[in-house]
Amino acid sequence: MIYPEAKFSPGGDRYILVEFGNEMNLELNFLGQGLGAVIKQSAIKGVIETAPAFASILVHYDPDLIGYHDLVRELSTLINGLGSIEDIELPSRLFYLPCCYLDPWTRECVEDYQEKIHDKQSDPELVAELNGLSGVDELVRVHSGTEYWVASLGFWPGLPFMMPLDPRCRLTAPKYNPPRTWTPKGAVGMGGASTAIYPVSTPGGYQIFGRTPVPIWDTQASFPEFEQNICLFKPGDRVKFVPISEQEFIDTEKRVADKSYVYNVVDYQKFSVSQYKNWLNSIDTDKRF
Amino acid sequence: MMIEVIKGGLETSIQDYPGRIGFWNQGFPQSGPMDSWSFRLANLLVGNAAGAAGLECQLIGPSLKFTDDRVIAVTGANMSPSVNGVAVAMWQSIQVKSGDVLTLPFASSGARSYIAISGGIDSKPWLGSQSTFTKAGVGGVTGHAIKDGEVLPLADKVEVISRRVKPECMPELSKNKTWEIEVVAGPNDDWIDQAGQQRFLDSEWVLSAKSDRTGFRLDGPDWTFTDKAHNKAPEHGSEPSNIIDHGYPLGAINLAGQTPIILVSDGPSMGGFINPYTVISAAFWKLAQSRPGDRYQFKQVSVEEAQDLRRVLDKKCQMSSLTLIK
Questions:
Q1: Which residues 10-29 of A are in CB contact (within 8 Å) with B?
Q2: Which value does ipTM take for this structure?
Q3: pLDDT tens digits for B179-205?
Q4: Which domains does chain B have, with CATH numbers?
Q5: CB contact under 8 A, A157 and B26
């Protein structure tokens, strides 16, 4: 649900978590991103930074400059002043990202976890089964059948948290218990209804079933995409996974290494909330294709 | 104007205070010294600004050779520092000469020592900070812990009057391997049932060896949850501790399945587990100085009390905590 009023909770002595609802939809993400933008514009005394997410925003503040309750009041005022999201139309880049689904590298990582930590069902099989799919081939078809909306960056530098824009491709997955201690760089996985790409080898809690050979963050600016920012994505971008074979993965990895790889990104489109909503109303969201 | 690293130690890294702030929304942690109390006092002892870049040493310290005359200071955990083999005092300004070798063998109590050098370390800031975030290979000189044979450039030295820290202004390390850690309830305390909240505050939690600057894993009893954690939309994930990915406060006690992990200086900014409690900033030095096997007892305080404790701590990190050496 979308909460009738935003919920405020303290995170220690210097953070406030603002929650707008407890489900995943574009509207809640626009509220989080929208509040982040107006906080920046209004320059509230004592606010250091914000981190918008799918349905919430975390606000980091300096308690020497503003108290908890005063900040809650300021944030409430800003939330009440947020305009309707129906009118939002914003530029949105679309990245075609190669992804080797059911790859040997994430499989090896899962097997390592099964052996050393917890004997769980393999990730792609588990996600396919829980979502009532016929098998891992259908998982690949469904997961790669939609554009993903980059709702936020976090967890690790440059990691995109994404939601599928086509509800017919919506999948859900449990998160690891306990988490993995390592994940291959470039692994693609899901937790809850969210899809993420691991920028480097890190611990992780998502079910993993694919891998991209393409860097999504780069401190050396090896490619033009990183000249403005070391992170490839920004909120409001879209990602479309293009299934590739193991051999194509290896070939692409080589082109990345010798810097001849060219990112496949288009940057002429705008995302219109009202048009998106009209389209949602025109399709049968319970169907798979 | 540099330091030659003879031995790097276990994990000695360049840090500044408060660290890399302003990039939480891209996933960059704050980094910086875990015990900023000891760190700031070390800098004040050598005439630097409290936040100037210095070294954080973990359990086993480095061996460093100076190439010019400098004033230095060592604070934090007691690693029995010596210069050219002669023991030197902690918590006070020390004059070293060109060619002198400072050695910090290992921590006999506490876990992290800090070395400040007059003028500070002169590495290139990255996203506004010199702090090393080793897991991503950024900050410091190389992006990693300092290594044997490496050279650390120093900034111009500053005039220093020798001082020491007043005993009442130093952090007091636990003598019985038990620490009282203050927490504020939230942001997701309403996912834990009454019994679970009571169990959290009444139990002793043991710091696991699987801990580092990204997270402190704790061993203890299992958690129990409210209805909210069990009956929820599938996009949260099916485990009770799963929530739609959201921003993590620094210091959050992040419940990954049944394993609580305190998110510390190099920790993740966002993720899909609940955070029932958050360790307050004024208690971070205690996390920094505890060792695997140490026990935590959590004490709940209000937001206002946590902010007061922060102010008390900040006051201790000022020149008024120092006294001249006669």
A1: 10-15, 17, 19, 22-24
A2: 0.96
A3: 999 999 999 999 999 999 999 999 999
A4: 2-170 (no CATH), 178-315 (2.40.100.10)
A5: yes
